[in-house]
Write a structure and sequence with these properties.
Shape of chain B: globular
Helix content of chain B: under 10%
Structural class of chain A: mainly beta
Distance between the termini of chain B: 37 Å
Radius of gyration of chain A: 14 Å
Distance between the termini of chain A: 41 Å
Largest sheet of chain A: 6 strands, mixed
Order of helices and strands of chain A: EEEEEEEEEEEE
Number of strands of chain A: 12
Oligomer: heterodimer
Number of helices of chain B: 0
Shape of chain A: globular
């Protein structure tokens, strides 16, 4: 069975601070995919990144960066210089080759102006 | 590209009635669509996998007779909540998987169902 744990239920930071959202996963599959999604108050899921299990390279996209470490089964997400528009619920998710997504419980991020 | 729409975006219905939610891939073909359910302030839970031209595969604990899924074409899947009850009130989200690389899942905007 697959499992995704986002231990941080809610995080609040002051604007311009950096913030890291943690994600720990469990799977028996050797081939799997990790995702991060943003869900603003409107409810629509916004795709942020997809990573496959064979690619441990960290990725940076603007103010966003991701740290994938298979040794600790973690796929953490960092926002640098946070902005109010970053306020949302962020979900980490995992899928195997069957592509069924298992979502974590989400982290509600609030950026205080 | 890769836009998925859902209709309606919100619906209120009375207990005992049935509600149909549509999920459409607007600019690509999707052989597989997924239906998720999200209760307030909770995570998304996969309900079923819908494959074009075949019966849907339901996750454990999801009543197939209550949540009827039809995937009649490569661009449309429907979820019908039959004999709705207040506990069915939730946010229903679909996703569609493209038939071409990178085979990503693209999510619809969701449908908020309230059963009174």
């Amino acid at each position: 069975a697959q499992k995704v744990t986002q231990a941080q239920t809610e995080i609040s930071v002051v604007e311009k601070e950096d913030v890291t959202l943690d994600c720990v996963y469990e799977t028996r599959d050797t081939t799997y995919y990790l995702f991060w999604y943003k869900q603003p108050p409107s409810g629509e899921l916004v795709f942020l990144i997809r990573r496959n299990s064979f690619d441990e390279q960290n990725e940076i996209s603007g103010r966003y960066s991701w740290n994938f470490q298979k040794s600790t089964s973690s796929f953490n997400f960092t926002i640098t210089a946070s902005q109010v528009v970053d306020s949302a619920v962020y979900f980490c998710a995992l899928s195997g080759i069957n592509e069924k997504l298992t979502f974590g419980t989400g982290t509600r991020l609030t950026i205080i102006p | 590209g890769a836009v998925v729409s859902q209709h309606p975006s919100w619906v209120i219905c009375k207990s005992g009635t049935s509600v149909k939610i549509e999920c459409r891939s607007l600019d690509f073909q999707a052989t597989t669509m997924f239906w998720y359910r999200q209760f307030p302030k909770q995570s998304l839970m996969l309900m079923a996998t819908s494959n074009e031209g075949s019966k849907a595969t339901y996750e454990q604990g999801v009543e197939k007779d209550k949540f009827l899924i039809n995937h009649a074409s490569l661009t449309l899947s429907t979820l019908t909540v039959t004999s709705a009850h207040p506990e069915d009130s939730s946010f229903y989200i679909c996703s569609a998987k493209g038939t071409r690389a990178p085979y990503e899942q693209y999510f619809g905007p969701g449908t908020r169902l309230t059963v009174t």
